[in-house]
Amino acid sequence: MNIGVIGAGAIAQFLAQQLQHDDAYTMTDALVRHADKHRDFAKAYGVTLHTDVATFLNSSIDIVVEAATIEAVRQFLPSIVEKKPVVVISVGAFADATFYESMTELLEQHGQRLYLPSGAIGGLDLLQNAAALQGIERVSLTTTKPASSLTSELLDERRIIFQGTAREAVAQFPKNMNVSIMLALSAMSFHAIDVTLIADPYATQNTHDIHMTGTFGEASLTIKNNPLPTNPKTSYLAAMSIIGTLRRMQHHIIIA
Ligand SMILES: NC(=O)C1=CN([C@@H]2O[C@H](COP(=O)(O)OP(=O)(O)OC[C@H]3O[C@@H](n4cnc5c(N)ncnc54)[C@H](O)[C@@H]3O)[C@@H](O)[C@H]2O)C=CC1
Ligand SMILES: O=C([O-])CC(=O)C(=O)O
Predict the structure, then answer these.
(1) What is this protein's function (predicted)?
(2) Which of 54, 73, 153, 163 is buried deepest, with most CB atoms within 10 A?
C-alpha cells in the first residue's frame, strides 16, 4: 500500500525511516507547505513532494497519514475523506463537535474510514468499553512535560500551567494536548475529562497519569514516554502508534 503523508516533521520522518524496508507499506508522497524545505527528506526516502492537496490525492497513494497539525486536519480532511482512507494523529481537530459531525457524514457518504491511533497514551479499550453503556463517571489526565516543551519562561520548579477541560487544554496547547481529546472521544464525553498540565524543568519524559472511574470500577495508568529526539514535545509512542494502527488494519484477527 502506498502511503501519502501530510507533513514532513518528526513523526513523518520517523514513519519514513521505519517503513523504508517494509513489505506492506511504502511512503511514496508527502503533502507539505514549502517543497524547497523538504528536498533532503524527499531524496532520502524517494518521496514525491506536493504542495497542492488535489495532486497529492490524485497520485498513486492508497491511504493518507496526517502527521502535521490540527489546522492541517481542519483544512484537508474534508477533501481527503471523499477519496481515501486516512489516519489522523492531530486528533485535537475533533474537539470541534460540528467538524466531527460533518466528517462523520462525509465518511458515511463516501464509504471511507478514518483511523485514530491511540497516540501517546493507552487504556482506550477500557474507556470505550465502559462508555458503551454510558458507564464513565470521571477521567482525570495529569500530563507532565519538560518545561521547555510548554513555556518559554525559565522555571526553577514544577508548575501547574493549566487546569480545565479537554477542549480548553487542546485550544491552549495544540501540540501537547491531543491526548486529552483522544480520552474524550473514547469516553464519548467531553464533560467527564479533567485535565491538568504540569511544566517540570527537571523532567526528561512526557508523563501521562490517567485515572478513570465508572460502573466498571476504577483504573489508573501512568505512561512515562520517551520523547522523539527530533521533537521532544512529541512522545515516541505517538509515532509508534501510527505504525501499530497501520499493522492492525492488515490483520484478519483484530483485538477489537
Ligand atoms: N495524538 C497524540 O497523542 C499526539 C499527536 N501529535 C500531533 O502530531 C503532530 C505532528 O507531530 P510532529 O511530527 O512531532 O510535529 P513537527 O512539528 O515535528 O512536524 C509537523 C510538520 O507539519 C508541517 N505542517 C504544518 N502545517 C502543515 C500543512 N498545512 N500542510 C502540510 N504540512 C504542514 C510542519 O511544517 C512540520 O514539518 C503534532 O502537531 C500534534 O498535533 C503529537 C504528539 C502526540
Ligand atoms: O506526545 C505526547 O506526549 C502528547 C502530545 O504531544 C499530544 O497529545 O499532543
Answers:
(1) Specifically catalyzes the NAD or NADP-dependent dehydrogenation of L-aspartate to iminoaspartate.
(2) 73
